[in-house]
């Protein structure tokens, strides 16, 4: 399996299930407690047992929602990530076409099109293809008046939730039979991803037409292949 295909599979098959530990009623709303809220935020409604809930607020281990009925399920699933790779210009073109046809493109996992270093080594009777990865996990903030957002809003609603997703990605890699252990992951916070402003705060340019914030994950992904034929065991 090629490197990009392996990373696409990792993203598209990522478990986006949120397990519900407890639900408390607060002033007519419902506080859902969970160990990992993933990317849940006020930008995106959630659906539990066919009922749509508006997210009012989020915390480290809870999601406050409003809805018509008390959530009674043991878990629910968030919208999976859209995976894109390539140059920023090419990806921006694809995103604009998708939006014009009302396709959902957020949240977005963007693998930047940069030279990938692949080092082959034979350890423990396996062939490892070590790939240097720069993966951006991005959320859409155009739903709101972005000019009214302060730094804390970007961190609370987009960046911190994406850190939850990064942890699940790392856990998935560590327990995946096709990958080796990732010894180190570097995380960079990307408020207003790809938006370039002048000293006076005027937007001079941006990578995507869609306004996003999120995080960048930088790590080496060991793709495990068989020792003899260099295909997955």
Description:
With 233 residues, the chain is an alpha+beta fold. The protein contains 3 helices and 15 strands. It has 2 domains: 158 residues, no CATH class; 61 residues, Elongation Factor Tu (Ef-tu), domain 3 (Beta Barrel), CATH 2.40.30. Helix content is 20%, strand content 39%. The strands form 4 sheets. Strands 8, 9, 10, 11, 12 and 15 form a 6-stranded mixed sheet that branches. A 5-stranded antiparallel sheet has the order 2-3-6-5-4, with no helix packed on it. A two-stranded antiparallel sheet has the order 1-7. A hairpin with a 2-residue loop joins strand 2 and strand 3. The longest helix is centred in the last third of the chain and has 24 residues. It starts with a helix and ends in a 7-residue tail after the last strand.
């Amino acid at each position: 399996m090629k490197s990009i295909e392996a990373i696409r599979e990792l993203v598209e098959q990522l478990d986006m299930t949120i397990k519900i530990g407890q639900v408390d009623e607060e002033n007519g709303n419902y506080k859902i407690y969970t160990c990992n809220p993933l990317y849940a935020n006020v930008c995106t409604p959630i659906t539990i047992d066919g009922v749509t809930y508006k997210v009012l607020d989020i915390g480290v281990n809870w999601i406050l929602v409003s809805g018509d009925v008390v959530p009674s399920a043991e878990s629910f699933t968030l919208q999976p990530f859209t995976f894109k790779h390539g140059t920023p210009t090419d990806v921006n073109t694809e995103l604009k076409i998708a939006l014009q046809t009302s396709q959902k493109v957020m949240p977005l996992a963007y693998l930047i099109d940069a030279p990938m270093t692949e080092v082959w080594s034979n350890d423990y009777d396996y062939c490892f293809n070590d790939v240097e990865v720069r993966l951006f996990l991005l959320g859409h903030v155009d739903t709101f008046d972005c000019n009214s957002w302060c730094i804390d809003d970007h961190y609370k609603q987009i960046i911190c939730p994406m850190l939850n997703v990064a942890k699940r990605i790392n856990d998935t890699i560590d327990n995946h039979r096709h990958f080796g252990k990732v010894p180190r992951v570097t995380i960079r916070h990307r408020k207003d991803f790809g938006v370039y402003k002048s000293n006076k705060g005027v937007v001079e340019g941006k990578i995507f037409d869609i306004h996003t914030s999120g995080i960048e994950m930088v790590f080496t992904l060991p793709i495990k292949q068989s020792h003899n034929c260099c295909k997955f065991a």
